[in-house]
Design brief:
The longest helix has 20 residues. This protein folds into 2 domains: 110 residues, Tyrosine recombinase, N-terminal domain (DNA polymerase, domain 1, Orthogonal Bundle), CATH 1.10.150; 191 residues, Orthogonal Bundle (hpI Integrase, Chain A). The strands form 2 sheets. It has a 3-stranded antiparallel β-sheet, with no helix packed on it. It has a two-stranded antiparallel sheet with strand order 4-5. It is built from 15 helices and 5 strands. The chain is mainly alpha-helical. About 2% of the residues have low confidence.
């Protein structure tokens, strides 16, 4: 990618930041714009002034046919729509920064089949979650004690935040030490989906897990990407979400339970799982919606359908 596109990528991110978009949205949209620039460069478009409506339409078509880089198959409708959102916002950026010839946002979105979406969600039972947590101590037997212990603590934190607290993928990734209030026993979620802050209470197990992680392990964590120097950022998780999901897969692989192995264990499936468990245990839809940070009850209603198919 040429220097012109690199500069444009950074200017777009700065514009999003100025408008008050969350760090996760800014980061994601910047990556989406970068992928567009790489596509344009491969198709001999080396300056943004040459971008036309036809190029944007062609890129949207390309996204719907390109393979998924992390797993088999193509991009999900939700992932595609996030890309479309980002490119539309980038086109808006071009217009607002003076490019009068810039293409107009397409406002094209793929309609999602809720029934298909629900049928594809395979949550873990409460017993399976307990079994997975009990298996943490058996992972990474060939690692050194220090590295094994670090990975174990990271897995425990994953279950504390993504399962017990029901966080979204980026909410957990962006969580900082200052967002954990041990005095009030709460976790402050900054600008979740739809830019809404919320506060989540910690139960005793989450409280203890976070205390243990922050005071006994977090400050001692090291990062291989930084030549094993001490970590310099304040986020709770040292690794990115790809690495966190990979650690869940490592945990899943050592299980002797074929039902556990047959399911797709991800950070977001843990969130789906706690929602179904709360509903099964008698919590109201309204309170689950508040807990998950849903903007409407419609989003939470899917868990009633998931329970009905279990």
């Amino acid at each position: 990618m040429n220097e012109h596109f690199k500069t444009l990528e950074n200017e777009f991110a700065l514009w999003l930041n100025t408008l008050g978009f969350s760090h996760s949205i800014e980061y994601g949209y910047k990556l989406n714009a970068k992928e567009l620039f790489e596509y344009l460069h491969k198709n001999n478009i080396i300056h943004i002034k040459n971008l036309t409506q036809k190029h944007v339409t062609s890129y949207f078509d390309y996204l719907q046919t390109r393979p998924n880089k992390r797993r088999t198959g193509g991009l999900s409708p939700a992932h595609l729509n996030k890309n479309f959102d980002a490119i539309d916002k980038f086109l808006e950026f071009l217009h607002q920064t003076g490019m009068q010839t810039a293409p107009s946002p397409l406002n094209y979105r793929i309609k999602t089949d809720n029934q298909l979406r629900i049928s594809n969600i395979q949550t873990f039972t409460q017993e399976e979650i307990k079994e997975l947590q009990a298996g943490i101590k058996n992972t990474y037997p060939n690692f050194t004690f220090t590295e094994r212990e670090r990975k174990h603590e990271q897995l425990k934190l994953i279950f504390a935040l993504y399962y017990a607290c029901g966080l979204r993928r980026t909410e957990g990734q962006n969580l900082q030490i200052k967002d954990v209030d041990f005095d009030r026993k709460t976790i402050f979620i900054r600008q979740g989906k739809n830019y809404k802050d919320r506060i989540i209470p910690m139960n005793r197990k989450v409280y203890e897990a976070l205390q243990d992680y922050i005071y006994n392990f977090r400050n001692l964590q090291t990062c291989a990407e930084r030549s094993r120097s001490k970590v310099k950022h304040n986020r709770l998780f040292i690794s990115g979400t790809y690495t966190l999901n990979k650690s869940l897969q490592d945990l899943q692989e050592i299980s002797d339970n074929n039902r556990i192995k047959a399911k797709n264990l991800t950070l977001h499936i843990l969130r789906h799982s706690i929602a179904t468990h709360l509903l099964q245990n008698g919590m109201s839809i309204e309170n689950i919606a508040l807990f998950l940070g849903h903007g409407s009850l419609e989003s939470t209603q899917i868990y009633t359908h998931i329970i009905n198919k279990i």
